[in-house]
């Protein structure tokens, strides 16, 4: 358990560490999309990062069961932890599709999705650091950017699927791509979900 100087459980620091781990996962996913190795070779390493993310979530939930006074509403802390975990789950689920769907290549859509995810996670980490410092109004600069990046994820999914149907190839191949694009877009949605909770916190605490 992580404690602050007063001996209390440092929930905000745990959220920061969770966000750092999520960003680490996003960087690894981008490496998988940009590198020369088959993307599925990154699956086990990303699974380990996802397991570490789960441990931060469990630590937060254990702490909430032990204390009465928290830096934010308990529900806010729980929601932030769960939704942040969803982001890393989405990244892990995306790389898993390269494994069990046997996708052995990457394309420009996948690479651009990986950039969107890295940028989104960078903004999430910055927002959590500001949250720990109670710099609530500055958080909105990052949530606005995350919302914009989610729109970019929507665009990539639409264009990727349009490409599938305007230039169809093998049906199994096309199914794999559509499945992957949709999961990646859902992961950008998860980033926006965290941003939405952060915005609601700002409205109540600023």
UniProtKB/TrEMBL annotation:
Check the record and name the PANTHER family matching this protein.
UPF0111 PROTEIN YKAA (PTHR37298:SF1)
Pfam families, sorted: PhoU_div (PF01865)
Family, according to the entry, reads as follows: Belongs to the UPF0111 family.
**Where are the coiled-coil regions?**
none
Query: Origin organism of this chain?
Result: Paenibacillus hemerocallicola
**What Gene3D superfamilies does this protein map onto?**
Phosphate transport system protein phou homolog 2, domain 2 (1.20.58.220)
What protein is this chain from? DUF47 family protein
Q: What is the lineage of its organism?
A: Bacteria, Bacillati, Bacillota, Bacilli, Bacillales
């Amino acid at each position: 358990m992580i404690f602050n100087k007063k001996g209390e459980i440092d929930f905000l620091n745990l959220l920061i560490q969770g966000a750092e781990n999520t960003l680490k996962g996003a960087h690894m996913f981008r490496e998988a999309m940009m590198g020369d190795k088959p993307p599925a070779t990154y699956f086990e390493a990303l699974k380990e990062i996802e397991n570490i993310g789960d441990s931060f979530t469990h630590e937060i939930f254990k702490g909430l069961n032990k204390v009465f006074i928290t830096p934010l509403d308990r529900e806010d802390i729980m929601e932030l932890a769960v939704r942040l975990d969803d982001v890393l789950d989405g990244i892990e689920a995306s790389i898993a599709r390269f494994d069990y769907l046997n996708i052995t290549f990457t394309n420009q859509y996948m690479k651009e999705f990986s950039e969107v995810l890295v940028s989104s996670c960078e903004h999430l980490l910055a927002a959590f650091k500001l949250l720990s410092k109670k710099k609530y109004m500055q958080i909105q600069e990052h949530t606005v950017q995350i919302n914009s990046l989610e729109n970019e994820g929507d665009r990539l999914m639409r264009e990727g699927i349009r490409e599938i149907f305007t230039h169809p190839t093998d049906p199994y191949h096309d199914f794999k791509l559509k499945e992957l694009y949709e999961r990646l877009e859902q992961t950008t949605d998860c980033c926006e979900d965290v941003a939405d909770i952060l915005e609601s916190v700002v409205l109540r605490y600023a």
